[in-house]
Design a protein that fits this description.
binds pyridoxal-5'-phosphate; four-stranded mixed beta sheet; six-stranded mixed beta sheet; 13 helices; 16 strands; Aspartate Aminotransferase, domain 1; 397 residues
């Protein structure tokens, strides 16, 4: 319909720096986990302000698998989380026999609400011998898993307070939030275990990949062992030590990252602040251009947060919710590819068939009907940004 290029939902910010790094690793002939991975972890720890532990893994989902295993959360335990997210953390739980329990999100930020989580805990659990037991089932609540939706940090201090009060782990799903800051501190440095994703559309990408970080002394080796079958020595350590023997000390995962991905990630990490700044600039233009359209609401950001702007979630006014798909079709007809975040976990067929109780989540259900994510990526040019905002304005004109 026109000669302009399609504006994809997302596009990686990659040039010769990344291709050179990958080729260097390929030529070295050591392409599985090795020095590049170790360096990537060291550099990420430094980027996060000198935190104590980082283990690179093959996806954000794998980071969640590893931390659930390492924290001893398993069959018959319960974890409170959000349904307004990608399904993968809930699938990780189900694979381990963990029961996900859902609490609603805040209407302004889409993030899991500390207030709602506290309500669920107070109504369902009681403390017995230092553990929170479900009054009906007797199962133990082991963790709360908030997601930093779109890269806006959730209420980390509020969740830490719940963690202390109820003796549960707080596991941060920061798939969207590498490069975000909460009260001036990088996401990843809170002292909770934090899971990053480096999937192809993420702000820092390794194609597929992720990292588990934790500002805690003494956990790194164990997390790394969990990420590689529970094997006591890595391939590189066995190669360097001269003898091929190893021992499997617990049933870990095959979750390690390889050096090809890590080489890519190291270059991306050096560019991360630039990537975040470019995304922020684009989000600011979107804000300026769209804030006066009465039918939509631009993203609300708390003043203490510096988000990574992984997504730009635009909300339609309640009375316009029925027009969301028309807007998507309108943009797609102009070669602009928006998305929707998220189809809530309990709306999926697997969940309906799982036998789990359907949660009552009015805010989640309402936000889902009204949300549309506009294309946003660091290499977006001024003309492309204008095409997106002009098209949104034209739809409502
Ligand atoms: C909120 C959230 N959590 C976890 C994941 C899983 O990350 P990965 O695709 O790297 O496994 C994603 C992926 O998009 C996500 O959006």
């Amino acid at each position: 319909m026109n000669n302009e290029r399609e504006i994809p939902f997302s596009e990686p910010f990659i040039n010769e720096d990344e291709t050179d790094a990958v080729v260097r690793v390929l030529k070295s002939k050591w392409i599985t986990t090795g020095d590049e991975v170790r360096q990537f972890e060291v550099e990420m720890k430094a980027y996060l302000g000198g935190i104590k532990a980082a283990v690179a893994v093959c996806s954000g989902t794998a980071a969640i698998d590893v931390i659930l295993g390492a924290c001893g959360i398993g069959a018959g335990d319960e974890v409170i989380t959000t349904a307004y997210s990608f399904v993968s953390p809930v699938l990780s739980m189900l694979h381990r026999g963990i029961i996900p329990v859902f609490a609603d999100v805040e209407d302004k930020t889409f993030n899991l609400s500390v207030h709602e989580v506290e309500g669920v805990i107070e109504s369902r659990y009681q403390m017995k011998n230092g553990l929170m037991r479900n009054r009906l089932t007797g199962r133990t609540l082991k963790a709360i898993l908030p997601v930093h939706f779109a890269g806006q940090p959730a209420d980390i201090d509020g969740f830490k307070r719940l963690g202390r009060t109820y003796h549960v782990h707080i596991i941060e799903d920061a798939a969207h939030a590498v490069g975000s800051r909460y009260k001036g501190q990088p996401v990843g440095a809170s002292g909770n275990p934090v899971c990053f994703s480096f999937y192809s559309n993420k702000n820092l990408t390794t194609g597929e990949g992720g990292m588990l970080v934790w500002d805690r002394r003494g956990v790194e080796k164990q997390l790394r062992t969990w990420s590689l079958h529970g094997i006591s020595k890595s391939n590189l350590e066995r190669y360097q030590s001269g003898l091929p023997y190893y021992d499997v000390i617990f049933p870990g995962y095959k979750a390690n990252m390889g050096d090809i991905s890590a080489a890519l990630g190291r270059v991306q990490l050096r560019k991360l602040d630039d990537i975040t700044a470019r995304r922020e600039e684009t989000a600011q233009v979107f804000n300026r251009e769209l804030e006066n359209i009465p039918q939509v609401q631009i993203p609300f950001i708390h003043s203490h947060n510096q988000p990574s702007r992984h997504l730009y979630p635009l909300l339609l006014a309640t009375e316009q919710a029925h027009r969301r798909d028309d807007l998507i079709r309108f943009l797609r007809a102009r070669d602009i590819f928006p998305s929707v975040h998220f189809i809530p976990v309990h709306h999926h067929t697997f969940f309906k068939r799982s036998g789990l109780e359907r949660p009552y989540l009015p805010v989640t259900d309402d936000l889902f009907r009204r949300e549309i994510s506009l294309p946003l990526f660091p290499g977006m040019g001024g003309e492309e940004i204008a095409r997106v905002t002009d098209a949104v304005k034209a739809f409502w004109a």
